[in-house]
Design brief:
8 helices; about 220 residues
């Protein structure tokens, strides 16, 4: 009689995505507030949300490229950053294509306080500066992915499908940034910095904001 364990079935794409989402939700200190989701899903805010989403994708690509220019002596870092920049620019192209099809303008928008406050956490001296920058990138990518997943079912069919299509790459971006930070610092240092960074992120996500943006807190009032 064959008493060996049956071979486990290969994990499906859906199972892998569910595992990725579970990992990043466990990583984040809080879920997106319901009040933000309600405001972001409102049809009256659709053009604003997409315009700011386009800005976020441009900024993400620029961040990856800026790091690639600054840190040229680390080939694994350069390979990851190059792929990240290409993917973020592709997402930007997809967002503005949706806006164009819908006849939406692309106005200049002020940034929310979210990224600015997170980047204020970054140490000024190397190598801490690079480690902290990568950890901030991991947090921003994780929050983006969490919001895509929470927001998608509340939107029209085209945007639901589009945001759903972004989940896999955004979840990988979170792991890429966190993995790079871990490769450049002791595990204890990474965990200590995250223990300080994540409560700051939670405060920014949960506190009321003056403006609605993709990474803002709930709009005040």
């Amino acid at each position: 009689m064959d008493t060996s364990e049956p071979a486990s079935a290969p994990q499906s794409e859906g199972d892998r995505l569910a595992a990725d989402l579970a990992a990043l939700r466990a990583f984040l200190p809080c879920a997106t507030p319901a009040a933000w989701l309600e405001a972001a899903a409102a049809p009256a805010n659709r053009a604003l949300l997409l315009a700011d989403h386009a800005n976020c994708e441009k900024k993400a690509a620029a961040t990856a490229l800026n790091l690639a220019y600054r840190y040229t002596d680390h080939y694994p870092l350069l390979h990851k950053l190059s792929r990240l920049a290409r993917e973020e620019l592709r997402h930007f192209e997809q967002v503005i294509a949706i806006m164009e099809r819908r006849g939406m303008a692309y106005p200049p928008l002020s940034a929310s306080r979210y990224a600015r406050e997170l980047r204020a956490f970054v140490r000024a001296e190397e190598p801490g500066r690079l480690v902290d920058t990568l950890l901030v990138g991991a947090v921003i990518e994780a929050r983006s992915c969490e919001r895509f997943a929470a927001l998608a079912p509340l939107l029209d069919a085209e945007l639901e499908a589009f945001y759903g299509s972004l989940l896999r790459s955004e979840a990988r971006h979170f792991e890429d940034y966190r993995g790079l930070a871990r490769s450049l610092a002791e595990a204890g240092e990474v965990e200590e910095r995250l223990a300080r960074l994540l409560p700051l992120e939670a405060a920014l996500i949960e506190a009321p904001d003056e403006v609605l943006r993709f990474h803002s807190g709930p709009p005040r009032g």
